[in-house]
Every structure is written in structure tokens, then in C-alpha cells.
Design goal:
- There is one protein chain.
- The protein is α+β, with helices and mostly antiparallel strands.
- It has a single domain, classed as Alpha-D-Glucose-1,6-Bisphosphate, Chain A, domain 4 (2-Layer Sandwich), CATH 3.30.530.20.
- Helices cover 27% and strands 41% of the residues.
- An eight-stranded antiparallel sheet has the order 1-2-8-7-6-5-4-3.
- Strand 3 and strand 4 form a beta hairpin.
- The N and C termini lie close together (12 Å).
Length: 158
């Protein structure tokens, strides 16, 4: 996998843009982002485990993930798919949910998949965060998630 990763911080104090190039065809990269049996194996920050993964990948469809952190605590995320353009783009809402099901702050995530002649440039944009600290937390989470994705993708290619 290509280790190239860049983070664009100057887009706005409360938005995040991460770009990474993967040495794999765009159709495969897109499929691994849109099929629950694959996504459940790589989603989440480093050392997290996906306990539950539900996805209805269509405009208006919902998604839900429950993850276990290394310390045993569980975190929940959910959202709604706003746009799916295979194999170019995914747009979905993203929010944390507490154990009682109460939603946190909602952001919008746009993931684009650009064909680079057999490689794929993935660009993730997320906004608008409640604070700069929340953006920083997501930077760490997404960076770990994309690293896990790279490892899973590499195994899928062998």
C-alpha cells in the first residue's frame, strides 16, 4: 500500500480533509467501503473492534456501528447516507450516540475515490465540528481507520 497521506488543515478551523493514495483499483476500494462484511473488519481507530455493523447503502439509508475500545468501553456511531455515486463518491452524516441512544453533534462526511490508473486517491472531508478539539480527535480516529483499511486492503489483494 502507498503510505502517502496528507492532511489539509487550512480549509477551516472546524473541518477536516485527509487524502491517501492506495495501490488498488477504485472499484475495489469503493466496494470495501460499502459492504458491511468488509467494513466491519477495518472500521474504527487503531485497536478497536467492531461489535455491530449495519449498513443500508442507498440515499436515505442508515448506517450504525458499535465499537469496543481497547479498555473495554463501547462507542456507537450512526448516520444517514445522503449520496452514493459508485465508484466515485459517498456522502453520509456522522454522529456519536450514547448508550441510551441520545445523539451527539452531527457532521457531514464526503469520501471521494479518484482513479489514478490502477491506484485510488481517497479524499475524506468532514465538517462541521463543534470545536477544534473535536476535529483533532477525529483526525486521530480517521488516520488509524485508514491505516487499518490499508492493511485490510493489502490482505484482500494477496
Amino acid at each position: 500500500m502507498d503510505k502517502q497521506i496528507s492532511v489539509v488543515d487550512g480549509t477551516g478551523e472546524r473541518e477536516l480533509v485527509i487524502t491517501r493514495v492506495f495501490d488498488a483499483p477504485r472499484s475495489l476500494v469503493f466496494r470495501l467501503w460499502t459492504a458491511s462484511e468488509h467494513l466491519a473488519r477495518w472500521w474504527g481507530p487503531k485497536d478497536y473492534t467492531v461489535v455491530s455493523c449495519r449498513m443500508d447503502v442507498r440515499p436515505g439509508g442508515t448506517w450504525f456501528r458499535r465499537m469496543r475500545a481497547p479498555d473495554g468501553t463501547e462507542e456507537r456511531r450512526r448516520g444517514v447516507y445522503r449520496e452514493i455515486v459508485e465508484p466515485d463518491r459517498l456522502v453520509f452524516t456522522y454522529m456519536s450516540v450514547d448508550a441510551e441512544g441520545n445523539p451527539g453533534h452531527e457532521t457531514l462526511v464526503t469520501v471521494t475515490f479518484a482513479d489514478l490508473g490502477g491506484k485510488t486517491r481517497l479524499t475524506l472531508h468532514q465538517a462541521e465540528f463543534e470545536s477544534i478539539a473535536a476535529r483533532g480527535s477525529h483526525l486521530g480516529g480517521w488516520s488509524g481507520c485508514l491505516e487499518r483499511f490499508a492493511g485490510y486492503l493489502g490482505a484482500a489483494l494477496t
